[in-house]
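yo

u said u wanted the structure for the complex thing, so here. seqs first:
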Amino acid sequence: MDSIRITGGKRLEGKIPISGAKNSALTLLPCALLTEGKLTLGNLPRLADVDNFSHLLNGLGVSTKVAGVKKGEFGRKMTLSAREIASTVAPYDMVRKMRASILVLGPMLARAGESTVSLPGGCAIGDRPIDLHLKVLEALGAEIELAAGYVKASAPKGRLSGGDYSFPVVSVGATENGLMAAVLASGRSELFNAAREPEIVDLCNLLVAMGGKIDGIGSSHLVIDGVEGLDGCSYDVMPDRIEAGSYACAAGITGGSIELVGARPSDMLAITNALAAAGLVIEFTENGMRVTADKPLRPLAVSTAPYPGFPTDMQAQFMAMLSVAEGQSFLEETIFENRYMHVPELRRMGADIEVHGRSAIVKGGAKLTGAQVMATDLRASMSLVLAGLAAKGETEVLRVYHLDRGYERLEEKLQGVGATIERVSLG
Ligand code: UD1
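structre next:
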């Protein structure tokens, strides 16, 4: 297993290219199931989760072809074709590797009239149920059975009718499943209190490009008029706002200046507002934005919330950055329980953080020191990389597979702005 070794203390300066968004890619890929035509997705990030998702789709009968990329180029293009659905079962072996596998449930049901997906197992960031995914599909006319660790959804008469559903809490994944199922239903569907994340907008835009009829895109009230069939098309994945935000924190924690090339600031208002409140200077450039830390960081009070609020996927990285700010910061995690698994590891590096239930107090001014650390999820791992970039001495981040799930060529991008960071193969 590989690890990432960092010698901290360098001010980072330069440009980092921002990749396609992981969370968008993972909801655009299953759209291949909705059409007999060819779906070509560009700007796909090169990530373990994208590979795993395409293997899952292969098992359902979707062929995938990756266009060659030149050396040094980021991203890639994939053409997916599901002329026929060969199997409507997503097995445990695939789903356990990646929770996002649940996103084949809606589109497979819509296209084939049935869909069987293993229930996802335990998750490091708290209990993540899928009840809302099932409820929205039921509202669209599906019959749901749970047996032997699998959920089986079927459409009476082979096609969903469509229907209305009001989400009791905002869920990104359940909104995605609902949308992908509703586009091929025989009637109209209305989703209330739907998630409004930019990745949902990306999904809606793709579905419309394929011939879907959706009103209210970008709002929490989506109206979907089902169509008989969808066509293939070519579509580019949106830039990753969480990757961009993570590298903005790298500028912050090292007192550096980084241009995030290809970032889309309009998707990142809550993040840029928080960065600015922490004292960073944000400049919009022709190709994205530049983030500069030219004075000591200020403490913050931040609470995570569904979009357009501050994303839970940025909480760990901000916590690392705020551990070196001058003063006391307050963080509150309202989306997932148990999402402070990075705290004990940050403490081992010298951060002074107290957790009280869903709140955390970060007593700033820490002089971080390098250590061997490991994390249990993707964003938590990134917070340790950030702490390592600012720490005195050497930091070794173990369990790199978490980072490989969500950060394309992390060490290459950070080396490009002057970091001393390398991947070490432990055999
Ligand atoms: C998605 C992202 C994840 C991100 C999260 C929040 C993907 C593949 N994953 O996760 O990286 O951290 O959004 O932005 O895009 N809930 C239920 N029942 C359900 C579904 C969700 O109770 O059926 C609850 C969850 O426990 C949580 C909240 O709703 O408290 C929001 O979860 P949700 O938005 O669904 O997150 P994911 O789609 O799993």
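The two ends are 6 Å apart (CA to CA). The chain has two domains: 2-18+239-425, 22-236.
cya
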